[in-house]
Amino acid sequence: MNSVSRPRRLRRFLLILMAAVAVLALAIGGGVTLVYVNAAVSTVGSTEFSNELAIPPLAPSRLRPDGTREFELDMRSGKKEFRAGQLTETWGFNGDYLGPTLRARRGERVAVTVRNQLPEASTVHWHGMHVPAAMDGGPHQMVRAGATWTPEWTVDQPAATLWYHPHPHGATEQHVRRGLAGMFVLDDEVSETLPLPSNYGVDDLPVIVQDVKFRGAELDSAHAMFRDVGFLGDQTMVNGTLTPYRAVGDELVRLRLLNASTARSYNFGFADDRTFALIATDGGLIERTLTLDRLALSPGERAEIVVRVRPGERTVLRSNTLDAGLGFWTQRFAGGDDTFDVLELRAAATLRPAPELPATLAVPSTPDGSDSVQQRRFEINLAGINGKPMSMDRIDLAVTRGTAETWIVRNADGMPHNFHIHDVQFRVLTRNGGRPPAELTGPKDTVFLPPNSTVELAMRFDGPADPNTPYMYHCHLLWHEDLGMMGQFVVVEPGGAPGTPPSHHGH
Ligand code: C2O
Ligand code: CU
Ligand code: CU
User: Fold this and answer.
1) Which residue's CA is the closest to the ligand 1 atom numbered 3?
2) Residue 279: burial class (beta carbons within 10 Å; 0-12, 13-18, 19+)
3) pTM above 0.90?
4) Domain boundary at 293, 321, 352, which?
């Protein structure tokens, strides 16, 4: 009797087990499906454009007797009313959120007094600026709470839209998210001579785009489920203004786009699919004005575009779904399916006429790879660069002052990354073995790398040499940077060897 019922009991047990597994799988599958469905966000069509776009003020400056232009930046905590009646805790430079626009001319000597009035140590990095390593504001130039830092350098690069933001190792995402970022505009003879819209805040608008999420009155910085890229918000703001509009009175409007988001890439265009002119990339003016209807910017990248408006009309700067071959899962959870109405431009009934844009803009300032003395390979993934996470006391490589190099960077990961190099602007020689798209042919300091893509970059290291003070290269998805997708290089004199980075024990 027993010998007969045993297999039957076993079969019943197995059936029950299978049913339980099936129910569990359905539950998990249903949960995942729900998370998947809820992961896509869109503000397209539902944005009211109820707030006038704030324009960051131009930072006041003083000229020292020797001509040095002096700025002051105070890092402080504050409260900002993003939404009526709700005060949100923030950080900012010289104010509650973001910072003033610094502006200087090529050839000028610049000095900034940075005062850290935050409750913790931070830094200020000049993203895109060619600066001596000790002035770079990376993780080796920490400014303690209550302390002051006074970097100085001579601006020696073409006109460009650069920016500044903190760079404390392991905490950059949070410091930027709280509001510490601002623009740094450089002018030169070329930019001043060309007939381009250049009336700051009138026909030349800074457009600092960030995604944001609120929990109650406060900024929500939590990383949602499956968000390998880091924090992603559910709405965008420009210059700290939610649902912004801007009245314009000129036929041509220049937008200095800065993706100051910590993880989100945008695919900009206009809601009516009108074309616009691309005139500058990260490091300044491109060779020839380029007509586009879409332009993708990953975190840290900039572009200057010029759009034509007709009298009395409204047009919306929109971010569209991203077409970067991210794959079904990543496309959704890296934000590739999200769409945003970013900024509405409202043209006046009569517009000041603007001259036609010039067809040619600037001669290339980045090397073309032909005089590279060194080729290096970088495999990047979430575990680090070339298999190693960032270490403050390890110099990963030394470059020789005055030489050009070719860096081949490959994203060997299933998720999107990008690659930013301090101190230099580079030229994208190839992408995935072919010619890069036209919008990547200008001077760049940050380049987007979808999964399994490779770029070849050429740059020149003009110095000065400082064997002990490293510059950074890293993924500019700031959480990835914080996790250690970052490496350090020093510039040495010909024949020189790398030294030892400063020790930060006690910080
Ligand atoms: Cu925008 Cu290393 O930074
Ligand atoms: Cu940088
Ligand atoms: Cu990354």
Assistant:
1) 127
2) buried
3) yes
4) 352
